[in-house]
Amino acid sequence: MPTFFSLLLRTTLAVCLGGFLWSYSGTAHAQSLTLAIAKVDRIKGSGGLPNRPNGLKTTDITRADCVANVIERFSLTVTGTVDSGRNLDVWASTGGDCTQITSRQNGTAGATCWQIAGNQTVRNGTIVVDIPAQTIASQLGNATKQPGVQTGSLDTCSSQPTVGASAINVYFLYGVPGNNSDSNVQQAINWDTKGPAGPTNVTAGDGDRVIVMKWSPQSSSGSDISGYTVYCAPKDGLDAAPPPVDAGDAGTHPECQDGGFTDGGVDDAGNPIPGQPIDGGCTQVPNVPDGGQPSDCPSPGLDAPIVRSVGSSVSDGTTVDGLTNGVEYACAVAAYDKGRNPGELSKAACAMPGPVKDFFWRYREAGGPAGGCALEGAPLTDGVMIGGATAAVLALVRRRRKGKRS
């Protein structure tokens, strides 16, 4: 017959063992749940579903995707035991381990993750989680992450700190809120909304209904450049160009007046031409910040009505055609990457298309007779005829200059 002490021992063991088994059972439920990402789709956001270049993955987000706020639809499969005391939260990071609660303590210096969805329903089978692009990168540029889900805005599309893609890891965390996760699955998002640096030395030359653009590629952008786009707009109606903002360059530079005449009023040696107004003189004026004069050619902007693309990373120029003669245009150039993300616009250059003044036009403008030597019909290979025509023009120009100076 069992004694009192033996009964007490058996009861104590039963209680302890039962408590252990209950505790273990709860942990086993959490650990037995498995998450897996079945697929990721892109669906329309507030701005529709923009067309994208070939070769991009579903998980690649471009600037156009961000502006349209497309939705990344994650389809997850859930297997195992679902615990009612646990839920599914979604976090994002560019390097931190979001499974650890210390990485999710928003508002503190050590937090590297930001929440992009919360309290998602968990059940066995397939569950779908929709997250807009602007929400995914809502705190990409924030040094200190804020608590709660931030929806983001158009400014989010410009928050990428450097040129080139940023890998955003999306964490689906299953567990007790405020604790380390019990189960998780991750998906990398290739976030690339910042285009390459702009080209330099941009010039615009005019022609008959065309503008010829030339530039120097930005070598520092390297392989990130896939091509260039020229943006043009009629100058009238554009905001005035701001002054240069480059730092430093104190001092002055000469600003000269020409006295109100067309030919300059001085000969090649700088001496006044008799009978002509003398030069108005020069005065020293302060330099603008970069040492030059502010440009009077305003930027056409990335929403310019006239756009021409050059699909080559080594291009250094192109022709913009179909323009109107007599209209002054402001044009600028931006490089773009494989996601067609436009980079920053170059400094603008202005030009006015017009009829091309060829040799014969200039000959007649100088006073040459029409027809006399049948210049327009002369073959280009006739050295005598072309040479004689050239001499005639030069002689005529000399006579006109002599008449001016006499």
UniProtKB/TrEMBL annotation:
Residues 1-30 form the signal peptide. Residues 280-301 are annotated as: Disordered. Gene3D superfamilies: Immunoglobulins. The chain crosses the membrane at residues 378-397. Keywords: Membrane, Signal, Transmembrane, Transmembrane helix. This is Fibronectin type III domain-containing protein. It comes from Pendulispora rubella.
